[in-house]
Design a protein that fits this description.
alpha+beta; Naphthalene 1,2-dioxygenase Alpha Subunit, Chain A, domain 1; Rieske Iron-sulfur Protein; five-stranded antiparallel β-sheet
Length: 385
């Protein structure tokens, strides 16, 4: 966050603490439970939100060296990202052009990708280098059978990919500043390219992907659900909200924020006392955790509206001298809070969504980031409810 925004958010938080208030949405928001449980709605979201739009794929430091690659599935599209010899990040459909087998799995470093089915080999630019039976495939146009290219871009330390192959004549570029809108400068100020990855954790909870994002968009539940974990460190049901197009930012105060009151306004440093939660549309939560970056990404299940895949990554500062035990403690707190408290309760709530006992859920005015997120989804889908 830039210095003027930091001071403005800090003043707003102190004002809310003194007045026992919080930023408010214009109105309460009613959402039909079908948004979490309907297969047809889930199909529409996969098509419109996860295949037609650029998707945040992590920080560029995940592909730190030429030859580094990362393979994962995005809403039914196998995606392969690779750092080429020229330092550029490129993305492809992770599908061999022979029989559609994946040419890479997980992450690592490679000079080329070899299909495990019949040994067809591709370079880091996606070019087909050769087949294993030259007689059987004599006359095959190698240049026309490279890996299908996906639009991709990297800027401000962030990687984006659109999980739909390029159409003929279409540019492979993505305008990240345009995608981030009003948050571009905000996120650039975080210097995300200086944070190497520390850990990766994955889970497949039985919840709709939107509920996985909802978890991070209000502090209303912190004093109740998290009373034994993080509640003692935060001021619950108190925060600021700012929107930037389809994206949102919620800031919450740590109980230590009172320390700044003794300082003149222009000397105050709110950063150690404020957690900034960026909701990057559609499926990413990027959290500025004072001394590290925590990122959660949720992807819809292939055929079940009530399932999703969630990845949590922690990035630590490149210049940090803290021991691994310190970062492992932060990882443990995140896992215990979300994976052992939020998501298990969320699985029971998912049953409630699917039970037919109620028709809607209600988000309060004190949950403006949550209201903005679901309003953005409706706008992006072009649906009324």
């Amino acid at each position: 966050m830039q210095r003027p925004q930091e001071l403005a958010v800090g003043r707003r938080l102190l004002g809310h603490i003194d007045g026992r208030t919080t930023d408010l949405a214009a109105d309460m928001f009613r959402n039909r439970v079908e948004a979490y449980s309907c297969r047809e709605r889930a199909r529409l979201e996969r098509d419109k939100l996860f295949r037609e739009r650029p998707i945040f794929m992590g920080l560029g430091t995940r592909l730190a060296r030429p030859g580094d690659y990362l393979a994962e599935e995005v809403a039914g599209m196998p995606v392969l990202m690779a750092r080429g010899p020229d330092g550029e990040m490129r993305a492809f459909a992770n599908i061999c052009r022979h029989r559609a087998a994946p040419v890479a799995e997980g992450c690592g470093n490679a000079r080329a990708f070899v299909c495990p089915y019949h040994g067809w080999t591709y370079d880091l630019d996606g070019k087909l280098l050769g087949t294993t039976d030259r007689v059987g495939f004599a006359g095959l146009d190698l240049a026309g059978h490279g890996l299908a290219r996906l639009p991709a871009a990297e800027k401000h330390g962030m990687m984006y990919v659109r999980p739909r192959p390029l159409a003929p004549g279409e540019s492979a570029e993505i305008d990240i500043d345009r995608e981030l809108g009003g948050f571009a400068a905000d996120l650039a100020a975080l210097r995300l390219d200086t944070y190497p990855i520390y850990s990766v954790d994955r889970i497949a909870p039985r919840i709709n992907w939107k509920f996985a994002i909802d978890t991070f968009l209000e502090g209303y539940h912190i004093p109740h659900l998290h009373r034994k974990t993080i509640a003692p460190y935060f001021i619950g049901n108190c925060g600021t909200f700012d929107g930037a197009g389809l994206h949102g930012r919620m800031c919450v105060a740590r109980t230590s924020i009172d320390k700044v009151r003794a300082l003149p306004e222009d000397e105050r440093d709110y950063r150690p006392h404020v957690i900034s939660v960026y909701q990057l549309f559609p499926n990413t939560i990027l959290i500025w955790q004072v001394d590290h970056i925590e990122i959660w990404r949720a992807f819809p299940g292939r055929d079940d509206a009530g399932r999703c895949d969630v990845e949590m990554t922690i990035y630590k500062p490149a210049d940090s001298t803290r021991p691994d035990a310190y970062w492992e403690k932060n990882r443990d707190i995140a896992i215990r809070t979300v994976m052992e408290e939020d998501f298990p309760l969320g699985e029971r709530m998912q049953i409630g969504f699917e039970s037919g006992a109620t028709e809607e859920v209600v988000y309060g005015r004190n949950e403006p980031c949550l209201v903005h997120f679901h309003s953005s989804i409706r706008n992006a889908l072009g649906v009324a409810a």
